[in-house]
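Structure (tokenized):
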């Protein structure tokens, strides 16, 4: 019996020993683990805990302002009201949406769709159910707040579009999509975009997006285990940071706001484009493309019907025609043919051709715009009266390739580098181009239309302005400049754009430029000139009219019997003053119902030129008055009282 008891006692003792070993071992492991978690990795887990408890709320930044060359605001910001839905405070979503639908006349499905787009977002973050509420809608929501828990009105700065905002020039904002979000965030890791952000879609807004957008700020809030904002949070006690948003940089353009408005008013009711440029440095003073569109439609919301109407418009309201519209230049191209003829010795300033009203090439007959003809004309008279037959002769003598040589030297048929919207290169045809593109040889009958700016010729309005700027300044091709400088919201200069000379034109002598300028001056200043409606009192203007057939019509066909889309384009390009040019204007009136360049486009340019000189005189007077007042104030300050001198 003793033996059995002793044996069982040993077993119990062994079990107790091993149980103690296991218990001590487990306790040691737990103590080591606690030390590892709380001491060795304590800081790491503290940060995780803080991140779970503290959430960062983004603060959007106001977009930079766009100003004209004189500091006048072209596009600024103003506060807009949004309908905010905060899930953590909404008790009954269905009831809330039904009430909102009745108050705002918006389908419940619209609210549901906005909610789905923000699925997975923390409950304390607001969701925009409707942007840009009217004052009436705001007051309606505020009056019913007691029945709408979780619904709030948030205020955000957005673009303040005016009725005369040039949409193609300044661009517009649109909500970012996923593809664009990934593309932009690849290069903006320190200032990433978020879904719902607005980004530039065209014009200055798109080209200078990185400067205009600014940098968002943030503030910290405390949340509970369910991701809801805690009301027990004391910001002062925890001293959490709040970083204010940094507004975007301001963009100062070379555009003159007052001249831009005059240009838009002068061109109102027409389709096409107008470009106003300084020929001395390539700075753009005004740019208008019509038909336009209201950039606020993207900010305020656009219905499917409105969107389809804009897309189906045959005159393409979304196309910036100043850089993306390609048109046959018509008779304004005659200046190029004239310079080519003079330099190639095909003609001189005294050469004369007889114009009977038509020109025969092979079995084809090409008419002059004056059926009865102009008689014997020289270069000056041919430019002044826009005689087609004179230039048919010169063009055939030169051939298409020699014409193209001078056209390309003058910067045509190639992009000028204006990084704004889509810029097309235009087209300067050659025999090689025809063979490559159409796989056909150049036909002799294709040269006469080229000589008067029709046929395959294509130029953009900005190229037309550049061409006449080059003629005006004697051979310098300037890169068109639209931005003067970029400054921060506190006025610090970020960068400054300088005029860039692309090149000085080879082949063309000063004498040739002078001869052509003389003919262009006669176009406006002579009583027989086709462009006399562009005259400015006290200023000598040089220019060239043009009319371009869209389809083949009998010469002098009654335009009232023609559908609008088949009416002629009216062209006019001019510079002033003729002897020392300061301004160039190019006008393209698409399918004009009034008539040709002299009847329709020249008066537009005349209004712009008159406004330019009027504004210049007003500003010089104001500057002189301000300078005089400043000098008078300084003289008064520097003048000392004799008694003061005696006391000293």
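Design, position by position:
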């Amino acid at each position: 019996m003793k033996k059995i008891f002793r044996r069982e006692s040993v077993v119990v003792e062994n079990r107790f020993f091993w149980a103690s070993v296991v218990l001590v071992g487990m306790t040691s492991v737990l103590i080591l683990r606690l030390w590892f978690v709380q001491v060795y990795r304590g800081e790491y887990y503290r940060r995780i805990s803080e991140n779970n408890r503290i959430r960062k709320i983004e603060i959007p930044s106001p977009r930079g302002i766009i100003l004209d060359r004189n500091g006048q605001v072209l596009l600024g910001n103003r506060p807009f009201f949004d309908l905010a839905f905060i899930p953590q405070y909404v008790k009954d979503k269905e009831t809330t949406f039904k009430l909102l639908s009745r108050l705002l006349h918006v389908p419940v499905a619209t609210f549901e769709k906005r909610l789905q787009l923000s699925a997975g977002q923390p409950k304390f973050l607001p969701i925009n159910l409707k942007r840009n509420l009217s004052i009436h809608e705001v007051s309606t929501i505020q009056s019913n707040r007691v029945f709408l828990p979780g619904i709030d009105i948030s205020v955000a700065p957005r673009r303040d579009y005016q009725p005369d905002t040039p949409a193609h020039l300044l661009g517009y904002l649109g909500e970012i999509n996923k593809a664009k979000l990934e593309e932009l965030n690849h290069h903006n890791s320190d200032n990433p975009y978020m879904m719902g952000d607005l980004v530039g879609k065209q014009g200055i807004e798109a080209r200078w997006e990185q400067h205009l957008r600014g940098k968002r700020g943030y503030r910290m809030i405390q949340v509970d285990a369910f991701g809801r904002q805690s009301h027990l949070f004391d910001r002062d006690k925890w001293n959490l940071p709040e970083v204010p948003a940094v507004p975007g940089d301001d963009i100062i353009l070379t555009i003159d706001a007052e001249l831009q408005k005059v240009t838009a008013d002068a061109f109102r009711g027409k389709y096409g484009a107008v470009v106003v440029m300084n020929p001395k440095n390539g700075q753009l003073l005004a740019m208008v493309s019509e038909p336009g569109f209201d950039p606020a439609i993207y900010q305020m919301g656009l219905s499917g019907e409105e969107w389809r109407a804009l897309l189906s418009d045959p005159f393409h309201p979304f196309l910036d025609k100043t850089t993306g519209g390609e048109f046959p230049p018509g008779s304004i191209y005659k200046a190029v043919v004239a310079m080519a003829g003079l330099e190639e010795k095909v003609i001189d300033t005294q050469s004369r051709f007889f114009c009977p009203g038509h020109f025969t090439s092979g079995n084809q007959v090409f008419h002059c715009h004056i059926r009865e003809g102009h008689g014997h004309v020289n270069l000056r008279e041919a430019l002044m009266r826009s005689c087609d037959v004179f230039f048919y002769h010169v063009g055939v003598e030169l051939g298409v390739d020699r014409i193209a040589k001078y056209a390309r030297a003058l910067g045509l048929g190639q992009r000028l580098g204006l990084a704004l919207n889509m810029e097309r290169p235009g087209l300067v045809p050659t025999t090689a181009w025809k063979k490559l593109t159409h796989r056909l040889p150049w036909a002799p009958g294709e040269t006469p239309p080229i000589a008067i700016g029709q046929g395959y010729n294509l130029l953009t309005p900005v190229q037309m302005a550049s061409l006449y700027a080059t003629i005006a300044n004697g051979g310098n091709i300037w890169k068109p400049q639209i931005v003067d400088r970029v400054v921060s919201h506190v006025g610090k200069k970020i960068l400054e754009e300088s005029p860039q000379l692309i090149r000085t034109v080879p082949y063309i002598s000063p004498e040739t430029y002078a001869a052509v300028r003389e003919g262009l001056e006669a176009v406006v200043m002579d009583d027989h000139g086709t462009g006399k409606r562009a005259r400015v009192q006290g200023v000598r203007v040089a220019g060239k009219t043009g009319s371009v057939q869209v389809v083949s019509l009998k010469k002098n066909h009654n335009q009232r019997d023609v559908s609008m889309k088949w009416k002629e384009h009216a062209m006019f390009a001019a510079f002033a003053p003729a002897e020392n040019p300061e301004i160039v204007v190019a006008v393209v009136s698409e399918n004009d119902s009034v008539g040709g360049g002299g009847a329709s486009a020249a008066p537009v340019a005349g209004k712009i030129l008159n406004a330019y000189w009027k504004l210049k005189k007003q500003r010089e007077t104001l500057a002189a008055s301000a300078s005089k007042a400043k000098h008078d104030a300084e003289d008064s300050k520097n003048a000392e009282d004799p008694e003061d001198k005696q006391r000293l």
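Reviewer-requested clarification: The first helix runs from residue 2 to 40. The radius of gyration is 36 Å.
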